[in-house]
Amino acid sequence: MSSMPKEGHRGKTKMEDIEGDASVGGGGRYTLKPTRISNEDIIICVDVDAESLVEMKTAGITRLDSIKQAILLFVNSKLSINPDHRFAFATLSKSASWLRKEFSSDVESAIGAVRALSATTVSSGQADLTSLFRLAAYEAKKSRAQNRILRLILIYCRSSVRPHHQWPVNQKLFTLDVMYLHDKPGPDNCPQAVYDALVDALEHVSEYEGYIHESGHGLPRTLFRFMSMLLSHPQQRCPQDDCDIPKPLMKKSAESANGEDNVHVSPSQ
Amino acid sequence: MSFDGFPPFISAQLHYLLNHFPDKIKVEQVVSGGNKSYGVGLDRFTLLIPYCLDYIKWDVIYNAEFPLAPPDIIFGPEDEDFHPLHMTGAEGEGDLKSLTRNILSDWNNKDPTRLLALIQEMRDQYMSYQRKRVGEVDDDRLKFEISTICSREGIEMHISSGAEKPEEVKFAVPLMDMNINKMVHGCPWRHPQKIYLQVIYPVGRKYASTPSAPRLKLMSTIELRALFSIDDVKLPSWLDGMCMAEYLPHLEESLQKQVLEAVSLIDIRRCFIEALTPLFGRPLEADPVFCRKATFLASSGSFVFLVHFLFSTQFPKQQPALMLQSSQHISPQGVPKKSPLLTEYPWSPRWEVSQMSERIFDFLADESLNFKRFCNESQPQH
Predict the structure, then answer these.
(1) Is Hydrolase a UniProt keyword of this protein (chain A) (predicted)?
(2) Do B259 and B150 lie in a common domain?
(3) Nearest to B281 among A35, A236, A244 (CB)
(4) Which of A71, A95, B147, B259 gives a 20 to 30 Å CA spacing to A197?
(5) Mean pLDDT, chain A, integer
(6) Would you state the pLDDT for residue A34?
(7) Looking at the DSSP assignment, which residues form a beta bridge with residue A166?
(8) Residue B276 domain flag
(9) Does residue B278 form part of some domain?
């Protein structure tokens, strides 16, 4: 659940425990209906603006480094859930461009694409999502013809540049998820406004329920956690506000025995 | 599968064949017959056509330099006597001959459906040819067997005569007239799933006192495995002096029961996955049609990991196999950290579903601590 308040239903208005484990979640009882779900074609689009080179809390590791790691973890996890999902890669600076256009379920291909990710040295200035959506919509038609669904995962890194887009109102051909990494809010930036713009885009274009997560804390672990939540299959999702995962695996008798952990979870993280 | 290098008219016919043939047909050994320096392109290939629970290999030879002509088909070395255009014999085969003649004389290379029509027609003739050959075998017992099952639809026969091997006659008997596809909600199968009994008789033992049992083997279309595994089926024994006409109904009745049970087990698995959600949360992804697997996201402190549940067709008699996978640890070679497949833990199929869920939850709560330690030892958490 997001700790950034925003207009609309997504997210709460108070700062919340990011690890958020609501005891009653899912918005009602879960049922596994006997309707086919499609294999996914997933485009991972990474914002390669200069802000992707901002360091994470771990010294010597940039946002882009963590993003690369997160992508490999994501691809591996997704393929272990279902080896028939496929991936392609794109980048976003001023607008979108392909990094690896052919969809593939081969991990080696993803490793190669991730290695090729590099940031621009100069600020891109603006972020036009329209080109990205056009690219995704085009691929979505091809995916649909193969009985697959298309998902676009945007990993965005800019704290002051609100992305913009122009898109027909009722064209929802793919699902959009967003992972937003930003600086802590201050007088010289506007991550809240950027977040709101991302939520608008998501709600505008997304075919199935899209998820958005954000983090300003600079912990790679948080990024990995949120990316793991994006593993959920769009056709089997609940509304984001009802998300109740990950659930802690703790025996009721052992709630206080967290000796294994060096870092205890707390809201300030 | 793309066929680059074929002239478009061949490519179109081959694609149509592959997409519309009722069973899985394979293509291999694609070559060019023409002089490569003229760039005439590929024009010949080998087809592996399913027949009698095996494949027959036929070479299809177009000639890219004469695109209007129909292809030649070369049959396997064992089938030197197979001449689809020249078959004489029983009534009705005159019609088959003329049908083949029509397909070939009326060849239209612009019609993508022609190759399929030709291959299907040839295959039908091949079936008749094999039937005839089997019928000619001088073995009274075999003749008797054939006469009792002849009326069954869809039986394919094959007689193999290798130089070193003794002659054997193989039957592929489709079992059960059940539309299994219809029994599965949300069924994704493109082809009807079938179970066959393969029956192999040795030939030529004229002086055996009691006819020995034939070799029996159950086979099924591959996709059926998601629902039902024929490996789990124990074939009823073939009693002395039995014949296929007696054996088959017995087997079919038993199989029918097992298939019906397998279908009912889908919902048992479905309910179990649903019962996991109060403790494990909503799964990231679950197989909605056969309910053979589900993956959840769990945490142990700040350690976040995936929990994979794998259900065999024998669930709940056989407990689910579990596997943990870290969402945070990856080796330098790009391999994520996984636990081994966990199959031994407290389990009883007689427990209430909620108890099964709780017991697995407790087991995994402990196991995840071990797993976390294992992940952190080889590599510190980020």
Answers:
(1) no
(2) yes
(3) A244
(4) A71
(5) 86
(6) 94
(7) none
(8) no
(9) no
Nearest to A166 by CA among A190, A211, A123, A200: A200
Among chain A residues, CA nearest to B374? A260
Distance of CA A191 to the CA centre of its chain: 16
Residue carrying structure tokens 């054939």: B146
DSSP state of B68: T
Indicate whether B123 and B179 sit together in one domain. Answer: no
For tokens 């296929």, the residue is: B244
Identify the pLDDT of residue B177: 82
pLDDT score of B355 more than 70: yes
Residue A246, preceding peptide bond in cis (omega within 30° of 0)? yes
What secondary structure letter does DSSP report for B267? Answer: H
Strand ranges, E, within B228-292:
285-286
Give the structural domain span for A104.
38-245
B299/A247 CB distance under 8 A: yes
Average pLDDT, chain B: 86
The confidence band for A250, taking pLDDT boundaries of 50, 70 and 90, is confident
Interchain contact, A247 vs B296, CB within 8 Å: yes
Q: What is the largest CA-CA distance in chain A?
A: 54
Q: Answer whether B298 touches A (CB < 8 Å).
A: yes
Instruction: Report the pLDDT averaged over residues B21-30.
Output: 84
**Which structural domain, as residue segments, surrounds residue B98?**
1-131
pTM of the model: 0.83
The length of chain A is 269
